[in-house]
C-alpha cells in the first residue's frame, strides 16, 4: 500500500501536466465551439446596442414596421423634458431662447442640432463641447447608444414609446456579447471551403506521413544500419539538422532554393529553362514544396526512432541469419521489419497527430496559396480564430475547427491501436508466462 502511494506521488506531476496541457485545452475548445465568441462580442459577455444592422435583423424577424420606422427616425427632439434639463444645466435664459427658436423641432443627428444651437450664438454654449453636451439633453434615439444592462435598454425603449410587447426581440438582437449556439457546426457543414480544407488536409497528412515520415524514415534507418558506425552517425546528424533549425530559417533556405531568383532557377536558366517560382508557380508546385519541406523534417524524426529500434534487435539473430546464408534483404524482411511494429505504430500515430495540428511550415512557405490550394484544416482554424483578413476574429468558429481535429485525431489513434494489435504488442513473451 505504501509503495502504491509513493508511486502515485511520483505520477502526480505527470497527471497535473496531462490535465493542464491536454484535458483542460480540449474541454475549453469544446466549450468555445458552442459559442459565438468573437472580437465584437468579447470573451466576458457584452453590453446592449442597437445599430442599423440590428434593425435589418429585426425586419427579417418580422418586427412591426411602424416600430422599426420609429426606431430609425427617432433622433433629437427639442421638447419640454429636454428644455427642463437644459435650464438646469445652463440656466433658464438659454432654455427660453432655445424654446423660442427651436421648440418642437426634430433633428436626425446630434450634429444637425449642434449646428442649430451654434446659429443662436448664445454665450452659454459658445464652446463646441458645451453645444455637444446641450444637444445630448434632447437625444431621444436609442440607436448606437451602449447600455450596460438589458434593463437600461428597456427603459430607454419605453421612454421612446416602444410597446412593452415588442421590446424583448429588440433587446435580444441588441445584445453584443457571446451566447450559446450550434450555428458554428451548421456553418461548418454549409461552407464550400470546408470540403477543400478537408481534402487538402487528407492529401497533406497522407502523402507526408506515408512517403516521408514513415517510408523514408524507415529506409534511412535501415540503410544507415548497414553503414560503418561513424559514417552512419555523421549522416544522421546532418539529416537531423532541419529539425533543430528555427522554422523561419529552414523555410527561408527552401525559398532561396525554389524562388524565381533562387538557386534552382539560376542553375537551370543556362539550359533554356524559364525562370519560375518553383514553390508557387502552380498548385502542383506548391504541393510538392509543402510535402518536401514537411517531409524532410518528419523523415529525420522517423529515422532516429527506427534506427534506435533496429539497434535494440539482438545481434545474435542477425549473425545467425548470416551463417544461414541470408541476404541483407532477407534480414530486413524476416528479422528487422517484423520487430518494428511498435516503433512504426508510435511514429505513425505521433506524426499523424502532429501533421493534423501543424501548419507553420505551410504558413511560412506558401501561406496556404496559391489562393487556398494548400490551406489545411489547422491553418483555417488559426486564421478564423487568431489571424483573419477581416479583423473580426471568430473564436467560437475557430474552436469548432479545432474540435473537429481533436475528434479526428482521437479516432485515428484508436484505429491505429486496433490495426497494429496494441494488446499483442504489450503482451508478455510466451517464455515469461
Low-confidence stretches: none
Structural class: mainly alpha
Strand content: under 5%
Work out the helix count: 22
Query: Mean pLDDT across all residues, rounded?
Result: 86
Distance between the termini: 26 Å
**In sequence order, what are the helices and strands, one letter per element?**
HHHEHHEHHHHHHHHHHHHHHHHH
Strand order of the largest sheet: 1-2
Describe the secondary structure blueprint for this structure.
Layout: H1 2-33, H2 52-60, H3 65-73, E1 76-77, H4 80-90, H5 92-102, E2 106-107, H6 110-119, H7 128-136, H8 150-159, H9 167-174, H10 183-190, H11 192-225, H12 229-244, H13 247-258, H14 263-268, H15 283-311, H16 315-323, H17 328-336, H18 341-357, H19 360-365, H20 377-385, H21 395-419, H22 422-426
Antiparallel strand pairs: 1-2
Give a short synopsis of this structure.
Helices cover 68% and strands 1% of the residues.
Walk me through the structure.
By secondary structure, the protein is mainly α. The chain has two domains: 123 residues, no CATH class; 243 residues, MetI-like (MetI-like fold, Orthogonal Bundle), CATH 1.10.3720.10. It is 68% helix and 1% strand. The chain has a two-stranded antiparallel sheet with strand order 1-2. α11 runs antiparallel to α18. The longest helix has 34 residues. It is elongated and about 115 Å long.
